[in-house]
Specification:
Layout (H helix, E strand, L loop, with lengths): L1 E7 L6 H14 L4 E5 L20 H7 L3 H4 L1 E2 L1 H4 L5 E4 L5 H8 L3 H19 L7 E8 L3 H9 L2 E6 L3 H18 L2 E9 L1 H4 L2 H19 L4 E8 L2 H15 L9 H4 L4 H14 L5
Parallel strand pairs: 1-5, 1-6, 2-4, 2-5, 6-7, 7-8
Antiparallel strand pairs: 3-4
Helix pairs in contact: 1-13, 6-7, 8-10
Bound molecules: adenosine-5'-diphosphate and magnesium ion (MG).
Length: 281
């Protein structure tokens, strides 16, 4: 089983969109995938998929030892994909978020132990999962650290802003000092005019690589690519938000499923082999 956590210094850089779109693409090509929402402070995997009210939350497994089978939902029939897609949803209720704000070291360790247990269970029948993906909270929290420990590769999503570059390189340096995991950096929300200019792109790419490897003193940080900013994503989300305001049901669009030829889908799908390649710890 290959395993990946998706992390960032700042919120709103595209972690959840990237996690959901990669997971669905892999299930679409016949892989068995498990996507866990470990962003307990801002659960949002639920905005992409419909959850059966009977299914328990991932919080119930990690904090209260609820059996895994009650906390995972097989979303593949809903999406009509050939592989299985099991999702563990984080509870978005105010009381669950409040519980997670007050997590102490003992509870965090219990959650880590249960995450490791889930990882093991997923490799065996009935799941036989080949890809495990964890969507995480921004910043360095107990859940970021737990996600990194549970997975063989960490993918940091970064925006090219000074605040995010500085924060991300410090975050990787701090985490890697303790965890020594393989870290990949992916830049999202990049202006299209920049991406179209190959000379500028390769120059910026080497500057970024220098910045991350120099500041983190760590040869295990690889910069893997770019995703352009695309106004149609923002527009689609805007239209969905209007539906929600009008009390209509809505869920966020999964581009790799519904619009596989869209630049967001093609760019992301091209990066998947690099993300999962040869990253064993
Ligand atoms: N490449 C992109 N182009 C345009 N909008 C994007 C892109 N990537 C993500 N977004 C938008 O940015 C917002 C935040 O994305 P999200 O995945 O929720 O981020 P995070 O999980 O890091 O908070 C969403 O509205 C999403 O549609
Ligand atoms: Mg998110």
């Amino acid at each position: 089983m290959k395993s990946l956590s998706i992390l960032s210094h700042k919120g709103g850089v595209g972690k959840t969109s990237i996690a959901a779109n990669i997971a669905v693409h892999l299930a679409k090509i016949g892989q068995n995938v498990c996507l866990l929402d470990t962003d307990f402070h801002g659960p949002s995997i639920i905005t992409f998929f419909k959850k059966n009210p009977e299914t328990k939350w991932l919080n119930d497994n990690l904090l209260r030892d609820e059996p895994l089978e009650n906390c995972l939902e097989d979303i593949s029939p809903q999406l009509e994909v050939s592989g299985r897609l099991y999702i563990g949803f984080a509870d978005p209720s105010a009381s669950a978020i409040e519980t997670n704000i007050r997590i102490n070291e003992k509870m965090s360790f219990k959650m880590l132990k249960n995450l490791m247990k889930i990882r093991k269970e997923l490799e065996s029948p009935p799941y036989e999962v080949t890809y495990l993906i964890l969507d995480s909270s921004p910043g360095t929290t107990y859940s970021t650290v737990n996600a990194m420990i549970t997975t063989e590769t960490s993918l940091f999503i970064v925006k090219l802003s000074n605040a995010d570059l500085l924060g991300t390189s410090q975050m990787i340096a701090g985490l890697n000092k303790q965890l020594k995991s393989k870290s990949l950096v992916l830049a999202n929300l990049i202006p299209k005019s920049v991406i179209q200019d190959e000379a500028i792109i390769s120059q910026i790419q080497s500057l970024i690589e220098n910045k991350f490897t120099k500041e983190t003193q760590d040869k295990y940080v690889d910069f893997i690519g770019w995703i352009p900013i695309d106004e149609s994503l923002i527009q689609t989300e805007f239209l969905e938000a209007i539906k929600t305001l009008q009390n209509q049901t809505s869920s966020r669009l999964i581009y790799t499923l519904k619009q596989p030829d869209h630049p967001f889908s093609t760019t992301l799908v091209e990066l998947i082999p690099t993300i999962f390649e040869d990253n064993t710890k």
